Fold this sequence. Notes:
Elements: H1 3-18, E1 37-42, H2 46-56, E2 70-73, E3 108-111, E4 116-120, H3 131-134, E5 143-147, E6 151-156, E7 165-166, E8 169-175, E9 184-189, E10 192-198, E11 208-214, E12 222-226, E13 246-253, E14 256-257
Amino acid sequence: xxxxxxxxxxxxxxxxxxxxxxxxxxxxxxxxxxxxxxxxxxxxxxxxxxxxxxxxxxxxxxxxxxxxxxxxxxxxxxxxxxxxxxxxxxxxxxxxxxxxxxxxxxxxxxxxxxxxxxxxxxxxxxxxxxxxxxxxxxxxxxxxxxxxxxxxxxxxxxxxxxxxxxxxxxxxxxxxxxxxxxxxxxxxxxxxxxxxxxxxxxxxxxxxxxxxxxxxxxxxxxxxxxxxxxxxxxxxxxxxxxxxxxxxxxxxxxxxxx
Length: 258
């Protein structure tokens, strides 16, 4: 197959994904059936990332007070003192104006039903020896995971403030998705679920998968991430039994007042 033909097929597939609306197989809804746009891929996820960034907003914001554009969270900015410990602060990416704590005012706060949050610069190899090889191909060299649970909640605020906010779209780069259905994003407008969406299974040794969803007509105040079917820990060291999944970058449009 020629390179041109491959690109035509890929762009056609992306266009179909971009145009996606309600799909029973993809989403479990608790009430109405909202329109949504899904972008997902695995392997070389560059085209999907580019498309989703354009959907969210072309301008990358890093300061508070923005009315449009998007935010991106990566782990390169985390100081050494907060690496490889289970006490990474969940509000690190919503540093409130005037606060003396370290962090960035990006409007996202992380919580988990587990025992902590962890940013790793060694592929979680200090917790599970085999993970060092599993995750060492990541571009950034740093990954993130809840500890003691596969569940991570992301709640949105006006960047740099404690005022609740909402977004329209949210996406995650996952690493190590081996089993279909093990890794999902569930979107909430208040307490109402807008749907649950599955991340695609990895398709190459690098192991990257991307899933992003936008709701043009609904506010998203919280996203629940389920990463894999077992928590990253020494208890689940046997990768033949468990699908251990960690997070790379997170993307979302500029949080706005509810």
